[in-house]
Amino acid sequence: MDRGSYLSEDLDEAYVTNGDARAALVARQVRKIVTDVDRMRALGFCASVKHARFMTRKFNAMGIASACLVGDTPSEERRQIRHQLRAAELRWRLYGGHLQTKVSTFPNSTRSYS
């Protein structure tokens, strides 16, 4: 392992196995900060594929329409997710397997982004 890197198992333990409270906290903070969640479109970069799938399930269960996009997502599903985000049918598009975890929101929800 390279110095300064993380073990994906450790990240999954922190963000997925023990992640219910953290997922609820993220959703609460989004609802607190974003003036209209029903118009929001955001990208979330998760610590792992498992984390991205977990957050997608949690957000959907909390009424925040979300989709997960990872390396093995089929091309047709990728196109569908991109279309749903552009059509404002989705609020979050979550990516897994990236080096950092963060959320990006679009400043103008009337524009289309891919």
Explain what the structure shows.
- This protein is α/β, with parallel strands linked by helices and 114 residues long.
- The protein has one domain (8-105): 3-Layer(aba) Sandwich (Rossmann fold), CATH 3.40.50.
- Helix content is 43%, strand content 14%.
- The chain has helices at 8-17, 20-33, 49-61, 75-86, and strands at 42-45, 66-69, 92-95, 102-105.
- It has a four-stranded mixed sheet with strand order 2-3-1-4.
- The chain starts with 7 loop residues before the first helix and ends in a 9-residue tail after the last strand.
Strand content: 5-15%
Distance between the termini: 34 Å
Gyration radius over CA: 14 Å
> Strand sequence of the main sheet, in spatial order?
2-3-1-4
Q: Tell me the CATH superfamily.
A: P-loop containing nucleotide triphosphate hydrolases
Record field, number of beta strands = 4
Task: Pick out the low-confidence regions.
Answer: 108-114
CATH class: Alpha Beta
Please name the CATH topology. Answer: Rossmann fold
Query: Which structural class do the helices and strands define?
Result: alpha/beta
Overall form: globular
DSSP helix count? 4
How many domains, as an integer? 1
Largest sheet, in brief, is: 4 strands, mixed
- Topology as H/E string? HHEHEHEE
Helical percentage: 40-55%
What's the architecture, going by CATH? 3-Layer(aba) Sandwich
Would you tell me the overall average pLDDT? 80
Oligomer: single chain
